[in-house]
Amino acid sequence: MALTATERAVIAALDGGLPLVPRPYAAIGAKAGLSEAEVREVLGRLIETGVIRRLGLVVRHHELGYRANAMVVWDVPDGEVAAVGRLLASYPCVTLCYRRPRRPPVWPYNLFCMVHGQDRAEVTSLVRDIAQDLDLADLPHELLFSRRRFKQTGARYGRAAVKGAA
Amino acid sequence: MAEVSRIDAISGRTVDPLERALVDGWQRDLPLSERPYAEIAGRLGVSEDDVLAALGRLHARGVLSRVGAVVAPNQAGASTLAAMAVPADRLDHVAALVSGYDEVNHNYEREHALNLWFVVAAADAARLRQVLDEIEARTGLPVIDLPLVEAYHIDLGFPVQWR
């Protein structure tokens, strides 16, 4: 779905988040060259159409005590991947669940999910329980624990806005 | 709201009841009224200043990345997950090179032969390709491009299990 230049401008102005001031939408409007009312209306539309999945607090798991996270990857037969993906996504500890392409021979997995836990042992046992629950234990899968976080910010679409307006 | 409770997160940090209510209740559906923080404050029975101060504290401690929008992948541009197998003695350098791109928003070392994983979100598919090609050229290492095919998770925010 193509976004309008106005919609792109609002998304770009939101790059750093809403400022912590009494009228944040007015501040975003000032950045985007729009009125406060326009920003509120555009945001409502973007949420309604699913372009914005949610508007609210974006928290960092690590700083909340969830010290371990693993990207858990599975090689699921193509015909079952959507059903398995939806089931995996229903667990509260699973924060993302995506189908992506395999890249044989280096990368055989087509289903990716993120699992967060207090420590490595908790994540490992959560994944084992899920795999048993869903009868996935026999499917090839791996846990890729994160070792270091080099960068974590919101996506920056600033350039998109410049293009959209051009 | 003055009473301070402790989460037994390994961090040992304290989270007061207002901070907790904000994290639990407001990861989505931020009001679109002129004064959203005042509206939240009204629902929680505190003042707008209390809410702004609590959000400021969460932000200062790094718990709050931002109050903002989570945009669905590939709606406002083009994005992908990329992976590289980087020799251990070059990892710091290559990770810094990758993080240097504004388009890269997450960049992690993971325990695998493919040990560097990052998300690239660009204005359009052409710029996305250009960033991946540049990283390959500058490092001399292949970049595995793993774009989203289908999303199964509806992001409602993260349910924190306060301990």
Which features would summarize this protein structure in a list?
heterodimer; A: 166 residues; alpha+beta; Arc Repressor Mutant, subunit A; Alpha-Beta Plaits; 2 domains; four-stranded antiparallel sheet; elongated; B: 163 residues; two-stranded antiparallel ribbon; 5 helices; 34% helix
Would you write up a description of this structure?
The complex is a heterodimer of chains A (166) and B (163). Chain A has 166 residues and is an alpha+beta fold. Chain A folds into two domains: 5-58, Arc Repressor Mutant, subunit A (Orthogonal Bundle); 62-145, Alpha-Beta Plaits. Chain A has helices at residues 5-13, 24-32, 36-48, 81-89, 120-133, 158-165; strands at residues 52-59, 68-74, 94-99, 111-117, 141-152. Chain B has a four-stranded antiparallel β-sheet. Chain B is 34% helix and 23% strand. Residues 1-12 of chain B have low confidence and may be disordered. Chain B folds into two domains: 5-60, no CATH class; 78-146, Alpha-Beta Plaits (2-Layer Sandwich), CATH 3.30.70.3460. By secondary structure, chain B is an alpha+beta fold. Chain B is built from five helices and eight strands, in the order ββαααββαββαββ. Chains A and B meet through α2, α3, β1, α4 and β3 of A and α2, α3, β3, β4 and α4 of B.
Question: Could you name the CATH class of the largest domain in chain B?
Answer: Alpha Beta
Q: In the CATH classification, which architecture of the largest domain in chain A applies?
A: 2-Layer Sandwich
Strand content of chain B: 15-25%
Number of strands of chain B: 8
User: Looking at the chains present, what oligomeric state does this protein adopt?
Assistant: heterodimer
For the report, how would you describe the main beta sheet of chain A?
A: 4 strands, antiparallel
Which structural class fits the helix and strand makeup of chain B? alpha+beta
Mean pLDDT across every amino acid position of chain A: 89
Name the poorly predicted regions of chain A: 159-166
Largest sheet of chain B: 4 strands, antiparallel
Question: What is the domain tally of chain B?
Answer: 2
Q: Secondary-structure element order of chain B, as H and E? A: EEHHHEEHEEHEE
Ends apart, CA distance between termini of chain B:
19 Å
